């Protein structure tokens, strides 16, 4: 199995985040006869509703992660573009003018002398100085990792949508089974 494939030896990879799979209830009578269900429709519906709520919570977390990655990738690519520009200007005897983002929607002009080092903001109040080549290697690696993670998150969100549907169908099937059972009991009395 290769690390970036969406398959396992058993077929398509279910979930990168370990999301539990919802099992489709094909035979409701057999499902309701299981010892853990013991025919208590309210209990079964409550369990299914809890499972549905857990999937919703997971979806919110994954959507947040997807949003963060979608913002992070362009920032990394912009930084990589700047590193490439600095590499081109590295052996030039003249300074060059550039604009940089000071804060949201606020840019500042700067005169940049040729350099062979750059400081990268790593987050968590950490900034480190790198050579241009090391900075480029780090950014390329981070972009690849972010894109791979985004792909995994997108896959997990698709997987979650399937689990929502399966859980909702199961809830409807159990509810309808109970309605038919009650109608049959009412008709027999």
Automatic annotation (TrEMBL):
Gene Ontology cellular-component annotations: cytoplasm; prefoldin complex
One GO term of the biological process aspect: tubulin complex assembly
An example molecular function term from Gene Ontology annotations: tubulin binding
Iron-sulfur is among the record's keywords: no
Pfam families: Prefoldin
InterPro entries: PFD3, Prefoldin, Prefoldin_subunit_alpha
Keyword Cytoplasm: no
Transmembrane segments: none
Coiled coil regions, renumbered to chain: none
Keywords: Chaperone
Family in the record: Belongs to the prefoldin subunit alpha family.
PANTHER family on file: PREFOLDIN SUBUNIT 3 (PTHR12409)
Quaternary assembly: Heterohexamer of two PFD-alpha type and four PFD-beta type subunits.
Protein task: Binds specifically to cytosolic chaperonin (c-CPN) and transfers target proteins to it. Binds to nascent polypeptide chain and promotes folding in an environment in which there are many competing pathways for nonnative proteins.
Protein name, per record: Prefoldin subunit 3
Originating species: Homalodisca liturata
Lineage: Eukaryota, Metazoa, Ecdysozoa, Arthropoda, Hexapoda
């Amino acid at each position: 199995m290769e690390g970036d494939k969406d398959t396992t030896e058993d077929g398509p990879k279910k979930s990168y985040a370990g999301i539990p799979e919802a099992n489709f209830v094909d035979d409701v009578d057999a499902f309701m006869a299981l010892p853990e269900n013991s025919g208590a429709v309210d209990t079964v519906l409550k369990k299914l509703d809890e499972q549905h709520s857990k999937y919703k919570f997971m979806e919110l977390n994954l959507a947040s992660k997807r949003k963060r990655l979608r913002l992070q990738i362009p920032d990394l690519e912009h930084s990589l573009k700047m590193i490439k520009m600095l590499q081109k200007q590295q052996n030039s005897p003249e300074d060059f003018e550039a604009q940089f983002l000071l804060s949201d929607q606020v840019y500042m002009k700067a005169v940049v002398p040729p350099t062979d080092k750059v400081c990268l903001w790593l987050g968590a109040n950490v900034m480190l100085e790198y050579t241009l080549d090391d900075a480029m290697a780090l950014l390329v690696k981070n972009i690849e990792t972010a894109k791979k993670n985004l792909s995994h998150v997108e896959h997990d969100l698709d997987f979650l949508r399937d689990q929502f549907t399966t859980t909702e169908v199961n809830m409807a099937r159990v509810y309808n089974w109970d309605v038919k059972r009650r109608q049959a009991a009412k008709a027999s009395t």
